[in-house]
Amino acid sequence: MAMNKENQIYELMTKMYAEMQKGLNDVRTEMQKGFNDVDEKIEYVKTELQSVKEKVIQIENEHGQKLGALFNGYTANTELLEQIAREIAKHEEIIFR
């Protein structure tokens, strides 16, 4: 009778162990799937980030060129205004003599 009870306990423990192993394997499988999903999302984010970096560089280059042109126009305008001011000063000297 005691041997029968021991066999039942052993069978129950064996069954519980097998169920625990299956449960652990299921958890491992789910975790691996989750890790794979996260890896895919990270790769997507890396790709998008690279795209954004490239776009920012393009915008910086375009704006740099535009700012350069704007500055050149400002400089040319300032030089022209200074030239006009000098001409006006010459004419004022002649007029007010």
User: Roughly what is the average pLDDT, rounded to an integer?
Assistant: 93
User: Helix and strand succession?
Assistant: H
Main sheet makeup: none
Q: How big a fraction of the residues is strand?
A: under 5%
Instruction: Count the DSSP helices.
Output: 1
Tally the beta strands: 0
**Between the first and last Cα atoms, what is the distance in angstroms?**
139 Å
- What level of helicity do the residues show? over 70%
Unreliable parts: none
- The helix/strand class is mainly alpha
Choose one word for the global shape.
rod-shaped
Radius of gyration: 41 Å
Would you give an account of this structure?
The structure is a single chain. By secondary structure, the protein is mainly alpha-helical. 97% of the residues lie in helices and 0% in strands. The chain is built from 1 helix and no strands. The model has no long low-confidence stretch (mean pLDDT 93).
Which terms summarize this structure?
0% strand, mainly alpha, 1 helix
